[in-house]
Amino acid sequence: MNSLLRSRLSVAACCVAALVFTTVSSGQQDALREAMTSASAPPANAIWLDSLDLSKMVQRRQTPRAGQTLARGRGRGAPAPQPQARGAGAAATPITLGGITYPHGIGTLSINELIVDLKGQATRFVSMVGLDDLAVGEASVSVEVWVDNRRKFASGVMHAGAPPQLVDVDLTGARFLELSIDDGGDTSNGDYADWGGSIIYLRPGATAKPESWTFPSEPAPALASGRSAAPRINAPRITGGTPGRPFLFRVPATGDAPLTFAATNLPAGLSGTFQMTSANLKLVVVPEPAAACAWGVGILILFSRARRRLSPGGQVV
What is residue 221's DSSP assignment? Predict the structure, then answer.
C-alpha cells in the first residue's frame, strides 16, 4: 500500500475516534480517560475486561495476556528494548496505545476472538483498541465488536502507527458480546493488537457478573471398546496357491489365550504344519505338483483352554 493511501487511512481513523469522543461532554471524556488508565479497582458497578477467564479466548497463535502486550521490539519512539526472558518469568511489557499506557487490558496477536456472556446484566462496554506502540513494519489489523449477532463497531484496517480507536457500545439488555481482531487481510505476523483500559459497566443491582464463554465441545466419537475374549479368526476365508511351491497362510486371530489351531478339509496331496513365531502363528501348506491351483482352506479355532495344543515342533497334537 502506498504512503499516500496509508496516510489518508490514518487521518480517517483519527476522525472516527474524534467523532466518537464528541458524543460525550469534555468532563465525561476526562473521567472516562482517567478510569481507563487507572491501575486500581474498576469504576463503581463495573469490571475490567481482563478480569475474565482468558483461557476461553480463542487465538490462532501465542496466548493473550492480561495487562501486557505480546509485542517484543522497538516501536514508535520507544527506547531500545533490553534482553528479556521468555515464559512465566518474562518481564511484563505494559500495553501502550498512542503513547498512553493502560495497566488493564488484553494484549493479543491476530487472529483472535473473545466472547462474553453478559447474562443480561451489562449496560456499556468501553475500550481503546489498536496496534501496540511496539508494533512495527507491515502490521495491520481490523477490529469488530458484535452484540447479540449484530455488528456495533468496525475499525477498518488499522496499520502500525495509526492512532488507536475508542470503542463505546451500549449493552443494555444484551446477552453476548463478541470482540474480534482479524489480520487486516494479509498475515498475522507482527499484528500485536491491544484492548486497552477495557471496562464492562453493569446495571444497578446486577445479580450476576459477565463471564467469558466458548462454544461447547462436541462429545468424542465412540471408539472400539477393545478385542473380544471370544476366539475369532480375522482373515480371508478363501485364498489360493501355486502348484509345487510352499504356501504361507498367516492366521491373524484374537481371543483369550491359549488358542488352539487346526486345519481341516485340505485336498489330497497337501500337507500342513503350524509354525509359531513371537508375532503370530502361520499355517504352512506344501501342495503336490498335481494339486489344484486354488482350493479352499477352512481354519478352525477351538475355544480357550482346549485340550489340543501345538507341540514344541509346531505340529498339532
Answer: P
- Give the residue numbers spanning the domain of 268: 232-302
C-alpha of 271 from chain center: 59
Whether 237 is in a domain gets the answer yes
pLDDT in tens, 9-18: 343 444 444 3
Residue ranges for the chain with pLDDT beneath 70: 1-25, 73-91, 224-225, 237-238, 247, 249, 262-264, 266-317
Please tell me the number of Cα atoms within 13 Å of 17 on its side-chain side: 18
In a domain, 15, yes or no: yes
Judged by DSSP in three states, 111 sits in coil
> Is 288 found in the same domain as 141?
no
Rounded CA separation 232/235 (Å)? 9
Residue 271 cell numbers, joined: 500337507
CATH code at 192?
Answer: 2.60.120.1060
Nearest to 143 by CA among 134, 130, 126: 130
Element (H, E) at 274: strand 270-276
The pLDDT of residue 256:
84
Q: Is 129 exposed, middle or buried (0-12, 13-18, 19+ CB in 10 A)?
A: buried
Beta strands of 53-210 (E only): which ranges?
A: 58-59, 65-66, 95-97, 100-102, 105-109, 112-117, 122-131, 140-147, 150-159, 165-170, 176-182, 192-202
